[in-house]
Amino acid sequence: MLARLIPDKFILLLLATIGAATLFPAQGRGLSLVSAIANIAIFSLFFFHGLRLSHEAVWAGLKHWRLQLAVLVFGFGALPLLGLSVSALAPDFLSAELWLGVLFLCALPSTVQSAIAASSMAQGNVAASVIAAALSNLSGVILTPLIFAALAHVGGGGGDLSTIGRIAALLLLPFALGQVARFWLAAWAERHRVWIGRLDRTTILITVYVAFSAAVVDGLWARLDGAEMLRLFAVVCVLLGVAMGGVWALGGALGLEREDRITLLFSGAQKSLATGAPMARILFPAAEAGMIVIPLMLYHQLQLTVSAWIAARLARN
Question: Quick one: pLDDT at residue 23?
Fold first, then answer.
């Protein structure tokens, strides 16, 4: 039962990190030190993303251009509009900070590991899943802050584009450097895939600890109660349900092959915690980032659970 509810044990590490930030939040010089470590980890993470992605895989995945375009349009178009519509229909259902978190969630790129794993389990197009995740995350470096700023402005929360340069420096630049370094380090990266893969999760844990430390010091748990968490969970369930139903219908409307439709389902509806947590660390003041990533963390757990169940059913059929 626990394995079904929490298919990825990393969720337990995330909960432990939030607990550590609640009991022992970093403050003052300690927070500055951990923040600097987080920036180094984020830079390294995206360098290794670029290093691991083969040039051949990029060209192979781009051949499925309709699928890749559908992933980008749905993830950066339909889902942000869905989030904006839900927030406009019930503006008092959640606090302003949590609604900003929902809008931020909807503007994020697709997840990488879980979308690929679910597509593989369901016998989808795995090669196209890899490229969809890479293109979505690379595009998200520019599109996410632009889309979020537009959504926040329409929703009355304002929007700041001044951090795009910093996001590019910490995310896009290292990815490009990783692609260049692949000419010399491809074999080394292949030998150390497991170690490099662990960097994803380590980076998330560090950025979550930094965000929640600042938020706890600023009174996070005094502003967020159990009733609002339940309301947030309901909103997240609606978002994921509409996202998965909508993207599956889109695949059918486009006449995609079954394996491509499966890839679109998981790549289009899922959102990346690995990109979202570092980006929140850059986009928002430290005291706000902890509250804003809570919708993303709930969505992440729910998408893992639902995707694992759907992938198993698709594989059987």
Answer: 87
Token pair listed for 19: 């607990």
Nearest residue to 62 (alpha-carbon basis) of 152, 140, 138: 138
Mean model confidence pLDDT for the chain: 81
Q: What is the DSSP letter of 257?
A: -
**Closest to 234 (Cα-Cα) out of 295, 188, 180, 278:** 295
* CA pair distance 131, 53, nearest whole angstrom: 9
pTM: 0.81
Indicate the Cα dihedral angle 168, 81, 64, 252, nearest 10°: 160
- Confidence (pLDDT) at 250: 94
**Beta carbons of 223 and 32 less than 8 angstroms apart:** no
> Which residues fall within 8 angstroms of residue 220, CB to CB, at 6 or more apart?
212, 290, 291
| Ordered domains of the chain (ranges, CATH) | 27-316 (1.20.1530.20)
CB 61 within 8 A of CB 185: no
Ranges of residues in the chain whose predicted pLDDT is under 50:
1-2, 5, 156-159
The vertex-109 CA angle with 274 and 178, nearest 5°, equals 60
Is the Cβ–Cβ distance between 163 and 38 less than 8 Å?
no
Whole-angstrom Cα distance, residue 136 to residue 98? Answer: 24
pLDDT, tens digit (0-9, with 9 covering 90-100), for 150-203: 887 665 444 455 556 666 676 678 878 888 888 888 888 878 777 777 776 787
The three-state secondary structure class of 271 is: coil
Please answer whether residues 21 and 209 qualify as being in contact, where contact means their C-beta atoms are separated by less than 8 angstroms.
yes
Q: Calculate helix-pair angle for 126-154, 55-62, nearest 10 degrees.
A: 80
Q: How far apart are CA 58 and CA 41, in angstroms?
A: 25
Which residues neighbour 93 within 8 Å (Cβ) at sequence distance 6 or greater?
231, 235
Q: Cα 235 vs. chain centroid, distance in angstroms?
A: 17
